[in-house]
Design brief:
The chain is mainly α. The protein has eleven helices and three strands. β2 and β3 form a beta hairpin. The longest helix has 39 residues. The C terminus is likely disordered.
Amino acid sequence: MTIVTDDPAWWPIIDWERVMSYFVVASSTAVVYDWALSFAQEFELVWRQSWSFMTVLYISVRYGGIPFYVGGVLSSIVSVSMTDISCTTLHFAQSWIPVVINAMLGVIMMTRIYAMYQRSKRMLIFLVVLLLASTVAAGVMTAIGNNYVSRAELILSGNSLCFTQYTNPVAMALTRETLIPTLIWEILALCLALWIVAKHFCEVRQMPIAGDSFTMLIKGHVLDFVGFAAVSCFNIGSLSPTLMNSSSAASNIYFGILQIVQPVQMFVLGPRLILGIREYHAKLVASSDEGTGMSTIAFQERGQVSAGDGV
């Protein structure tokens, strides 16, 4: 149902949507800029290589941001008229895309940890159960939250907006808390990675190449964790009544930063978990025909050991 009103009390909503649209454009620009900078590397290390499960995950994560950004831009441009069905579709897409993308990133992280633990079947089973539990929990929370939401076109003084209304206040908080199960997964994954790296450096001090491999892997884990932790903190912090009921510049900046950090975490840091591995392996192959460093930690995607085959 389209709502038409010229009530001046709604004008702060128009200003808020316009400010958010600036941050959405800034976020899109950052992701596109990163894609342009790394496309040559991506073409060499991904598109020109034999396809594997990791290749499919990389492409899905890297380019899964396109519908996310299209929905974000369309819903924030006040001059674009949207029907009720379009508003509802965009809302569900923007709610579920982070769940799906974070699940894919979890599979990538699980593969890395599985390789670091020398392809231990027990560790693989533990990781699969843990990731499945966190993903199902996030999916159930998202589904429950969306069950109590309605989206409608709101025309304010000639400006078209997609208006979101929650019939249950708890559901609105639930949609912001969907990242908590994934955050628990990220914390446990980081602890497992730190443990095996510490154990490795204590046991193997005479293998600098292998040590460099583990150092590269743990850097990727830490960077991904920091990015996801920042997104989770911003999402949980947005539940503050002070922020939700405020139209101040500080509140706008807070929600605007959230519009930037979440896509960057998913579509910039996420793909680099795979791109960094392949770049490192390519350098090893270039300097040594055997590439013994990555073989040592069982993370080659081709040859004797394949990181993607076991997932």
